[in-house]
From TrEMBL:
CDD domains linked: ASKHA_NBD_HSP70_HSPA12
Chaperone listed as a keyword: yes
GO molecular function terms listed in the Swiss-Prot or TrEMBL record: ATP binding; ATP-dependent protein folding chaperone
PANTHER family cross-referenced by the UniProt entry: ALPHA KINASE/ELONGATION FACTOR 2 KINASE (PTHR14187), HEAT SHOCK 70 KDA PROTEIN 12A (PTHR14187:SF5)
Alphabetized UniProt keyword annotations: ATP-binding, Chaperone, Nucleotide-binding
SUPFAM superfamilies: Actin-like ATPase domain
Protein name, UniProt field: Molecular chaperone DnaK
One family name in Pfam for this protein: HSP70
Organism of origin: Prochlorothrix hollandica PCC 9006 = CALU 1027
Length: 594
């Protein structure tokens, strides 16, 4: 992949950090590498705040077209509600996490049902990416002095993805980018898009920040841990800095679904207990804009200011629409609230114990994931821990990180504007993808194939086919029986994979075969031998259909090579005809249930 990247005349790297709660873009010209920081939009329409991202929300019209997006979506929906003309309009948010944990799926992947309408998540993402692309190109054109001064082929697009995502989720993101018009069809166009792992992007940014501040701080051999705590996920990577080369990943990345939105979920459950679950459901359903304002503005300000001191307290003014629901249908709730709040039922009071309970489960799980990475390092030291991402703004998380790990690292660093670290780092990564020189495989990957039957090893679990039958199928003589359920390992769990490395396997196929389905498999077991043992928990990762237009003219078996590249942030496979040299990129077709 590295050679292919260097072979194009890219002029600019444009990164889109597509987040659970918010999204934004940044760009860097190749000629500015090392001289200027990536540029990002710091102010979005219909808001007074200065922040590099806009809400990941879309408002759809009754006919299914997009009415508005970002901050404008919620503002426009509020206007429609005030005009009593919102019927048929649908506001959708928090759809990114469905790629990983969505339960409703079909052949196109996960989907959302709203008001009897089906919204495939891949198309929701594509709609949003298309609009960010348009804003980015417009802003860049203004910088350059006019439209038409930047050719599409000069752009390398970088799209961020969580490190904990599976390959099917990454492939859906790539498909969404194509639907959004970031890239076209074909192998050459596919290579114009990089999927950038969010913690790796943050690592690139943090390295650049430290190098500018103090070059000695990141001397060769230093080990850095990146804790990227976002809205939906936390991703944790550990790299060794090799000056003049790049970042070398030391252990497989860790993390999980422990982002700040799960703190929001706990707050929502707190309100359901304190007030009434039925009232909160009605408030959310009947007044979605007011509900969203409570959760994303009022609560967000409180969440980001809570510092865990014992005498902390705050109050939330009861939303008028929610109060009306309680007055009409649940008056006993207001009475109970007044009894515990000294006669005041116009606010919702929060004290330290409430907030501690709201934060505790999420922060504890996040801390546990960080601790796992220290355990994986074994005896190796970690010099610097960087905390980045939107959740890094939380005083509670900052303090817990320092308390838990301050004595295990030389420094805990939270860069200025931690929410922009991934965004800026992804743009820089696009200019120099070779900055990450090696990764660690989180799983064992391979294919199902037939190999020689080993009497010593395969007598218990191997599925045997006779040498005679094997010879008949492939049109050549075999002296040994075959084992049909072997797992051919391309790369094993925990294995170090250089970013410019590839793994190639040579196979033969029957002489009359015109089509072949190759099944790509994964497992956590680094020494897996068979494809059908329950203890190995084999997952069928994807299928690739390979077509061969001509049968073998002399009846001999046909050769075929499969090349897989693991060193980048996404698995890429090629089917190769070694006779003609024809090389076709394999488009993975992922199981919808995976």
């Amino acid at each position: 992949m590295i050679l292919a990247f260097r072979g194009r005349n890219y002029r600019i790297s444009i990164a889109i950090d597509f987040g659970t709660a918010r999204s934004g873009y940044a760009y860097q010209f190749f000629e500015d590498e090392g001289a200027k920081d990536p540029i990002f939009r710091n102010r979005w329409p219909d808001t007074n705040e200065f922040y590099p991202k806009t809400p990941t929300e879309i408002l759809f019209r009754p006919d299914g077209s997009v009415e508005a997006w970002g901050h404008t979506a919620r503002k426009r929906f509020t206007q429609l509600r005030e005009e009593a003309s919102e019927k048929g309009y649908i506001l959708i948010e928090n759809f990114k996490t469905l790629l990983h944990d969505g339960k409703d799926r079909d052949q196109d992947g996960p989907f959302i049902m709203r008001d009897g309408k089906k919204f495939p998540v891949v198309k929701l993402i594509a709609e949003f990416l298309q609009r960010i692309k348009e804003v980015a190109l417009s802003d860049i054109a203004e910088t350059l002095g006019g439209e038409g001064l930047l050719d599409e082929n000069e752009i390398r697009w970088c799209l961020t993805v969580p490190a904990v995502w599976r390959e099917d989720s990454k492939q859906i993101m790539r498909h969404a980018a194509q639907l959004a018009g970031l890239i076209g069809e074909g192998t050459q166009e596919a290579e114009r898009l990089l999927l950038v792992l969010e913690p790796e992007a943050a690592a690139v940014h943090c390295q650049q920040v430290m190098m500018r501040q103090n070059q000695v701080a990141l001397e060769s051999g230093k080990v850095i841990m990146i804790v990227d705590a976002g809205g939906g996920t936390v991703d944790i990577t550990v790299h060794e800095v090799r000056l003049g080369e790049g970042l070398d990943e030391l252990v497989p990345c860790g993390g999980g679904l422990h982002g700040s939105k799960y703190v929001d979920r706990n707050f929502r459950e707190f309100l359901a207990r304190k007030l009434c679950a039925e009232a909160m459901d009605e408030f959310e359903t009947q007044w979605p804009v007011e509900y969203a304002k409570l959760m994303s503005e009022t609560w967000e300000n409180i969440k980001c200011s809570y510092d865990a001191v014992p005498n902390w307290r705050s109050s939330i003014e009861m939303p008028r629409r929610l109060e009306k629901i309680l007055e009409t249908s649940f008056p006993e709730v207001l009475d109970r609230l007044a009894n515990v709040q000294g006669g005041d039922n116009t606010v919702i009071r929060l004290i330290h114990d409430d907030m501690e309970a709201i934060f505790k489960s999420v922060v504890d799980q996040l801390i546990g994931k960080v601790r796992n990475q220290f355990t994986a390092l074994e005896d190796r030291r970690c010099d610097i821990l960087f905390l980045v991402g939107g959740f890094a703004e939380s005083p509670v998380l900052k303090q817990r990180i320092r308390d838990e790990f301050g004595d295990r690292v030389e420094q805990v660093i939270i860069p200025d504007r931690p929410g922009a670290a991934v965004l800026q780092g992804a743009a820089s990564f696009g200019v120099n993808p070779g900055v990450v020189i090696a990764r660690r495989s989180t799983l064992t990957y391979g294919t199902k194939t037939m190999m020689d039957f080993d009497e010593r090893l395969d007598h218990e679990h191997g599925q045997r086919i006779s040498a005679r039958e094997r010879s008949r199928i492939f049109g050549t003589d075999f002296s040994l029986d075959g084992c049909t359920n072997r797992f051919d390992i391309f790369v094993a769990t925990g294995e170090r994979i250089p970013s410019n490395a590839s793994v190639t396997r040579s196979y033969i196929i029957p002489p009359n075969a015109t089509e072949l389905t190759v099944k790509f498999l994964s497992t956590i077991n680094p020494k897996v031998r068979y494809t059908n043992l329950e203890k190995d928990e084999i997952t069928e990762l994807s299928q690739v259909d390979i077509r061969f237009p001509f049968a073998s003219p002399d009846g001999s078996p046909k050769p075929m090579n499969i090349e897989m590249q693991f060193g980048q942030s996404q698995i890429i496979a090629y089917a190769i005809d070694p006779i003609s040299g024809n090389r076709e990129r394999c488009e993975f077709r992922f199981s919808s249930s995976y």
